[in-house]
Structure formats: structure tokens, C-alpha cells
Amino acid sequence: MLTQPLVEVRNLTVDYVGANTVSRAVNGIDFDIRPGEAFGLAGESGCGKSTVAFALARLTRLPGLVSGGAVRFMGEDVLSFSAERLRRYRWSEVSFVFQSAMNALNPVIKVSEQIEDAILAHRPRASRAETLARAAELFELVGISPRRLDDYPHQFSGGMRQRICIAMALALEPKLIIMDEPTTALDVVVQRDIIEQICELKARFGFSVLFITHDLGLMIEFCDRIGVMYAGELVEVAPASAILTAPQHPYTRALGRSFPPLSGPRVRLEGIAGSPPSLSALPEGCRFSPRCGEAIPICVRLAPELRPTPATGGEAACHLLQ
Ligand SMILES: Nc1ncnc2c1ncn2[C@@H]1O[C@H](COP(=O)(O)OP(=O)(O)OP(=O)(O)O)[C@@H](O)[C@H]1O
Where is it mostly found (predicted)? Predict the structure, then answer.
């Protein structure tokens, strides 16, 4: 039996509105996140990954505007949530870990108080003893001694601060944690430790993750499925293992060739020739066609739609496959 997806994104469209211009940063994308799944969004800088993450959490702010489509969370229409429903949705059901832990933590308040405040904002009847016990438990979960609860953010290393942000994200036992470049600012060893810890916590508590990172290798290791975005659209969705071993879309192949392999001999990396189009000058047809070495005449005339790809059990939008 198929379980209901935790998140359903349907035909989601997000614009950035300027004085005389509208840039469509996300152009009608569809994907699901299943319960307990880590779903990654990959693609070059500016392709719209963070814009999607913000829309999913209803955090889009002007000049950004969700101009179409739907986001459903456990079947409920997130885009029409009331202020009160939204308050419960954020943190209790969906929480976030962003790149800059230093900006997320208040430098002049002890971390224990910050965690307790996050709990109290949603569980106002919790006693001091309860919130303190929960803060200590959360510290232990992310591998920091509760003896350090009374320290200030600057007394922790970058990796520990990021662990504290993960502890805060876990505080209310959300069903989805959105992680946007959660370990980018950290060195490789610390980054790997933190990702392993998130994997353990995910296995233990069963939450889903929307994971965004530029590190395709890390994403493939951590995620179950990956959506590859190009210029505001999803060009392929596939099991993570297929992204390198059986990429269906020419852009997925190009992206894979531009990253170091996870194992085996060293290979020469190839960048992707050219650069993504500006949102104000999008090409006709497939948006990747000007950079695609495999383009055929129809590619410059007609935009391909996402279609199932039997080879991976996923979907890809490419005329060569249709
Ligand atoms: N506040 C804004 N005003 C105008 N345009 C914006 C704004 N924020 C993002 N954009 C544009 O929207 C597009 C998508 O940006 P977004 O940050 O979502 O991409 P991304 O894939 O997350 O990039 P990165 O990997 O660099 O974080 C880009 O073209 C960007 O220039």
C-alpha cells in the first residue's frame, strides 16, 4: 500500500517582483516528500532551491511571492493556513537549519535560554524544570555535554553551534526539517560528523528532511531521492543512487561529471560549459538546450515535461527520453 506523502508540491510558482519586472524563480514544479525520507534539491547556484524551501515553509517574503500552485502538508493546504495554524506549522511540524548558525543564535543570550524559549513559545504551559530537562536531552542528542547549556554562542565552535541549531530544530519533534546548506561553513570532517548524526536522529525519530547543498557527493550519501533543478524547474527526480549511476537528463549527467567521485580512482572533473540563463532572458524550449551537447531541433522549440523514467523509477524532462 502506498503511504500518503508528507509533503506534496504541485505546480508551485514563485516570483520575485521588482518595480517594473517579475522574475519567475520557480516555474511550476511538482514533487513529493515521503514520511521519513530525505529528499535533496540539487542544481547550480540561483536555480531556485532556497526559494522552494522558503515557499514550503511559508516563509516567502516580498519581493518574493508564491504566485501559483499548491503545497500540501499531510493533505492540508499550507498556502491557505491562518496565522494561528501557521504558528503551529512552523517549528512544531516543520523546522529549519540554515547555513549561518551564528545568525540563528542570539549572541547575548545563553543557549539554554534560547532552546527553552523555543520550547515555551509553543508549549507555554511547560514548567522551567521540564524545559531545562528537554534542553539537556536535546544537547545530549546532538553530542554536546549538557554542562555547557549555560554557555553563550561564541563559546562554541562553528560545528557545535550548528549542532545547537539542529537541537533547536528537533525541540518540538517536527515531521520535516528543512536543511539549507546546513554544513557548508564547516570543515569536511565536522561536516561529515554532523551529517552522520542527522542520519542517526532521522532513523531514530523518523522525521523527513528537505536537504539543500552544493555538495552533490554529500547529498547522494545522505538522501533517499534527489530532485535536480535547472533555471527554476525540476529536470529530473530520481533515487539518489541513480543520480551518478544512471542519470537520465543531460543536465544531471553534466552535474555528476562536475563533482569528484565518491570512491574509485581520481578522474578529471569537467565543468558545465556556459552558465545558467538569466531569469529575464530565458531561452525558448528546454531551458538547458543552449548548454546541452545532445540537443536536437525540438529542444529549442518546445519545453519538455517531466515524464516517468523506467530506468530509475523517477522522472525526467527531456525530449531525448520521450
Ligand atoms: N530577494 C530576491 N529578489 C530578487 N530575486 C531573487 C531574490 N532572492 C532570490 N532571487 C532570485 O531567484 C533565483 C533563485 O534564487 P535561490 O536563492 O532560490 O537559488 P538557489 O538555487 O537556492 O541558489 P544558491 O544555491 O546560490 O543558494 C535567482 O535567480 C535569484 O537571483
Answer: membrane
Could you tell me the pLDDT band of residue 102, with boundaries at 50, 70 and 90? low
Mutation choice for ligand 1 from 21, 45, 54, 61, CB with most ligand atoms inside 8 A? 45
Amino acid identity for residue 80 in this structure: S
Q: Count H helices and E strands in the chain, helices first.
A: 10, 12
From the CA of 53, give the closest atom in ligand 1.
Answer: 18
Q: Answer yes or no: is the ipTM higher than 0.95.
A: yes
Task: Please state, for a pLDDT cut of 70, what percent of the chain lies above it.
Answer: 97
Tell me the percentage of the chain whose pLDDT exceeds 90. Answer: 82
Query: Beta-strand (E) ranges in the chain?
Result: 7-17, 22-33, 38-42, 64-73, 76-77, 94-97, 176-180, 208-212, 225-230, 233-239, 307-309, 314-316
Pick the CATH number of 7-93+175-186+206-284 from 3.40.1190.20, 3.40.50.300, 3.40.30.120, 2.40.10.120: 3.40.50.300
The per-residue pLDDT for range 138-156, each reduced to its tens digit, is: 999 999 999 999 999 999 9
